[in-house]
Amino acid sequence: MIVFGKLEQILFKIEKVLVMIPFVAIFITVVEQVFQRYFNLPIPDTSDISLVSQATFTFLSVGLLVYTGGHITIEVHKLIKNVNILFVIELVGSICMLFIAGIFTYLGYGLLAYALESGSATMALRIPLWIPYGSMLVGMVLMIIHQIGVILKLFYYRKHPSERVADIDIESMR
Length: 174
Known about the structure:
Elements: H1 2-39, H2 47-68, H3 83-118, H4 130-159
Helix pairs in contact: 1-2, 1-4, 2-4, 3-4
């Protein structure tokens, strides 16, 4: 558990950097497009960069969201007080997430293989489509790794309930 937790922390730091690159590219290209249209500048269309960056940002962010718990969740622990039932529900939810990530990993691999084989690219700037498809594959693999971490934590905290940090109540922070 400790070794896997350290691996996840290292991956988390790398993912934060990888996610910031397309985020900055989105910001720069959108601002550039506003100026281009407002001042009627003769700059080539950069919307392809924005679109590829948005896809890359979205897929690479999935692993981060699972690791930080920032994805959409239903907080059943507030509704269900039985620890055993709650454990089963969280475990089933995590297994479903693994299943979904596995399907998208398979699809991402197929799309990446197709893009590499065909050399497909965007229309305007001819950006290779293996970039967003590859980010889909990488993002799903990272999601699987972090979801395995969630499952390991579930079992660890089931054995060591006193070590579990209390959930933060966002409502009380307002």
